[in-house]
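Q: Given only this backbone (420 positions), what sequence would you predict?
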């Protein structure tokens, strides 16, 4: 499209005149300008217009979209870009990057971003780094990504500061360095970058690159949460629930968990369900707990799967249904949830004879109780598991016990993660 438009023969000055007229019709304030015909004046006019329109507070992306309502007007970007104007080169790269008025072409985006970046355009430097980071239009090259991010970051580009911080955190293209990561995250966060604020909060929780300080974490999580970053909302809810870095407050925990849950964050959905289950910060409501647990459980959250199984097991908030209880216990048990393993083992021990939703199977009972015995459970529950495991084992022959123990060993070999 741009190649075709570039052949129509209009001058840069004529194209700019059309753009100004169009912007005025749309109610966008621009200073009236007499456009000179020579190349140097046209380039100066481009810079003056660019500063003027950005001074109105309109994001560059919205300006570009406005111009491309009539794709013929895109030709003027190429003309100015070919004359060496860095802002126009960046803009042309952005059109190719996003496929606005032209077929999306990352290689062309990289070509024009590079020209602008080499002239010091910070936005182009950041976006060229992003292309190298992702291997879009150029070979994936983390050191090159880091180099371009750094150039933009040192000019104060918040996106680049955050992205460079991520590279330092993950050790991609640079040596892993949590201190450097935290420093660049902070620069972006102080400019209001919400994702950087959330990430910096997490670094304060974990003590990565900074001294562990949950009060500082809460400050940064709140800044990000107020900008609707779901992970920060969930994390802030967790701090209020535990009373870490802030005063324990179940009402506040519920408020922030709910905001994150509405974004589909499984941890927050489970945590909000737990509040309804226990009546903490909200009226106790098993039916609402079940709704929240189910949303998280269907996303694979093991704690929610166990909790939903428990509600089915005991008929709280829903009709009692041992078959459903067994199904959700199994999903959680297979992810290593020790409480679910214990509960599933008990269902198999009692079986249909006691209406427990699964056939009575002492070998399965023994298997799940043996797996559960090494989980992170309180001493009283572990003692009960051991007793129940012994009862299940007593119903098996030595050969059957041996086969189950072999299954247990294989299960732990396949599940190397720490028991829950």
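A: Predicted residues:
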């Amino acid at each position: 499209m741009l190649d075709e438009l570039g052949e129509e023969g209009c001058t840069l000055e004529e194209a700019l005149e059309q753009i100004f007229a169009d912007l005025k019709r749309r109610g966008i304030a621009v200073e009236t300008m007499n456009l000179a015909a020579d190349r140097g004046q046209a380039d100066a006019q481009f810079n003056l217009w660019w500063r003027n329109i950005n001074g109105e507070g309109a994001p560059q992306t919205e300006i570009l979209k406005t111009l491309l309502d009539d794709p013929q007007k895109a030709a003027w970007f190429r003309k100015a870009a070919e004359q060496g104007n860095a802002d126009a080169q960046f803009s042309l790269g952005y059109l190719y990057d996003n496929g606005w008025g032209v077929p999306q072409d990352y290689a062309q985006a990289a070509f024009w971003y590079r020209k602008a970046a080499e002239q010091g355009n910070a936005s182009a430097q950041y976006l060229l780094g992003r292309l190298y980071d992702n291997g879009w239009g150029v070979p994936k090259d983390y050191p090159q990504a880091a180099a371009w991010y750094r150039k933009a970051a040192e000019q104060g580009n918040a996106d680049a500061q955050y992205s460079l911080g991520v590279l330092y955190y993950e050790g991609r293209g640079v040596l892993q360095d949590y201190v450097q990561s935290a420093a660049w995250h902070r620069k972006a966060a102080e400019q209001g970058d919400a994702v950087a604020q959330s990430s910096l909060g997490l670094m304060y929780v974990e003590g990565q690159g900074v001294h562990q300080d949950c009060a500082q974490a809460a400050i940064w999580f709140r800044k990000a949460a107020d900008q609707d970053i779901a992970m920060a909302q969930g994390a802030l809810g967790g701090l209020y629930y535990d009373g870490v870095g802030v005063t324990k407050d179940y009402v506040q925990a519920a408020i922030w968990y709910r905001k994150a849950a509405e974004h589909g964050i499984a941890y927050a959905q489970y945590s909000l369900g737990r509040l309804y289950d226990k009546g903490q910060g909200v009226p106790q409501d098993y039916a609402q707990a079940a709704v929240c647990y189910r949303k998280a459980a269907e996303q694979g959250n093991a704690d929610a799967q166990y909790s939903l199984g428990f509600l089915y097991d005991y008929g709280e908030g829903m009709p009692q249904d041992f078959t459903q209880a067994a199904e959700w216990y199994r999903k959680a048990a297979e992810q290593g949830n020790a409480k679910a393993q214990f509960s599933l083992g008990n269902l198999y021990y009692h079986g249909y004879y006691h209406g427990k939703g699964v056939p009575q199977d002492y070998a399965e009972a023994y298997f799940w109780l043996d797996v559960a015995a090494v989980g992170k459970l309180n001493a009283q529950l572990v003692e009960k598991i051991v007793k129940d495991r012994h009862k299940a084992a007593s119903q098996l022959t030595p050969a059957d016990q041996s086969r189950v123990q072999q299954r247990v060993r294989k299960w732990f070999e396949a599940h190397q993660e720490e028991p829950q």
